[in-house]
Amino acid sequence: MSNLSLAVRDSSTMLRRNLLHARRYPSLTLNLLLTPVMLLLLFVYIFGDTMSGGAGRDEYIAYIVPGILLMTIGSTTIGTAVSVSTDMSEGIIARFRTMAIHRSSILFGHVVGSVLQTIISVVLVGAIGVAMGFRSTDATVLEWLAAFGLLALFALAFTWIAVGMGLGSPNAEAASNNAMPLILLPLISSAFVPLDSMPGWFQPIAEYQPFTPAIETLRGLLLGTEIGDNWWIALVWCLGLTLLGYRWSKAQFNSDPK
């Protein structure tokens, strides 16, 4: 078999392994889903009338759901960091290295499996948003496909970052703590309030981070708001983080003596 065929075959095997783990131990994914779901319920039903500035709860749920969907990606990928760190600390990675399998398939199995789980999580949270009253405004099929592509690319980028965090952590608890910024960053973005309502000194911090342009792009695709330059800034962030996470993960994986 060619090197590519071996890589695809072994990556498929590792993907099945990770999906079986996720099916047998769903508690981690469900626990990570609680954060975006609870925030959605809290901000819509408790703070919705106040946060909307008088526009109404229906207007605010339309505003908040795109940010919650991207927060779901950040939250779910923490499970990837924990899973990778667990594999490293329990020695299964060292075992795999003694076997005749393609080395990169170990990482790719984690990444593809995590992206699939993340997309499923996003769909579940999106369904909860729809049940609460979220509706897309005149989005075309092309815009829906673009929105799905953005979410998938964002999930891929942060999954690679999470893999790097997992490889660099001594245990699962440390991996979970190291990946906490993936949940905290959406809280200091335009997910819950517009940028112009923030203090002037804080606005650049919220504006020039990966979540804000992605949130504004997703809002534009689903709700018809102005996208401006946000689409290409979000794309650059996604591609840059994917490349950074891949190279970081590969360097750590290849240099690990285990």
From TrEMBL:
Source species, domain of life: Bacteria
InterPro entries attached to this UniProt entry: ABC2_TM (IPR013525), ABC2_TM_bact-type (IPR047817), ABC_2_transport (IPR000412), Nod_factor_ABC_transporter (IPR051784)
Subcellular compartments: Cell membrane; Membrane
Ranges that cross the membrane: 25-48, 60-85, 106-132, 144-167, 179-195, 231-249
Predominant subcellular localization, coarse grouping: membrane
Cross-referenced PROSITE patterns: ABC_TM2
Key words of the record: Antibiotic resistance, Cell membrane, Membrane, Transmembrane, Transmembrane helix, Transport
Residues covered by the ABC transmembrane type-2 domain: 27-256
Family as reported in the entry's similarity comment: Belongs to the ABC-2 integral membrane protein family.
Entry keyword annotation includes Ligase: no
Membrane-related topology note: Multi-pass membrane protein
Organism for this UniProt entry: Streptomyces argenteolus
Keyword presence, Transport: yes
Name of this chain's protein: Transport permease protein
Pfam families: ABC2_membrane
